[in-house]
Amino acid sequence: MSLRTSLFAVAALGFGLLASFTGVSTVHAAGLVTPSGEVVLTVTGKITRSNAGDAATYDMAMLEALPGRVTETETPWTKGKARFEGPLGAALLDQVGAAGSRLKITALNDYVVEVPVEDFRTWPVILATRKDGKPMPVRDKGPIFVIYPFDIDRTLYNEKIFSRSAWQVKSIEVQ
């Protein structure tokens, strides 16, 4: 067996172990695992990696397996500081091979907001899946809430950014 073949086998084994630890069952031909749980996010548009036709679908375990961040911050929608955690928006974009300049983010109630991809690349914006250590139910802005890093850059605490902070997110279209 060549060194290249051996390295590929080790990488494939590692990816398989990662998938088994995260509760994800299969790897799609395009390189993304297939969700084993309820799909909570669908990414479409200008992407190069998918697992459901032209879309990349995610269950909660897949999202929470992405590199993430914890932020403790005040928001206009919470009393006092809240602790939000979830995957970095940039990590999601990297995983799907996003190639656009805008994101059309749609919520469960069909609220739509356009967000520049640059926001996810410039700041550590997260797709919060947990608040104060607990999964966020729909009635409390879950299951996914776009949270900007108000804790590290107070200039983001403004109406323009508040309007981009969608909650109950169900899909992202890369444009």
Entry keywords:
single chain; 175 residues; alpha+beta; Sulfite Oxidase, Chain A, domain 2; 5-stranded mixed beta sheet; 4-stranded antiparallel beta sheet; 5 helices; 26% helix; disordered N terminus
Protein model, in words:
The chain has 175 residues and is of the alpha+beta class. The chain has one domain: Oxidoreductase, molybdopterin-binding domain (Sulfite Oxidase, Chain A, domain 2, Alpha-Beta Complex). The chain has five helices and 13 strands. The chain is globular. The N and C termini lie far apart (43 Å).
Write the CATH homologous superfamily: Oxidoreductase, molybdopterin-binding domain
CATH topology: Sulfite Oxidase, Chain A, domain 2
Low-confidence parts = 1-29
Can you name the CATH architecture? Answer: Alpha-Beta Complex
Mind telling me the C-alpha Rg?
17 Å
Largest sheet: 5 strands, mixed
Averaged pLDDT, please? Answer: 87
Which descriptor suits the 3D outline? globular
Helicity, as a percent range: 25-40%
Task: Provide the number of structural domains.
Answer: 1
What class would the helix/strand composition place it in? alpha+beta
Strand order, sheet with most strands: 4-3-13-7-8
End-to-end CA span: 43 Å
Order of helices and strands: HEEEEHEEHEEHEEEEHE
Number of helical regions: 5
Strand content: 25-35%
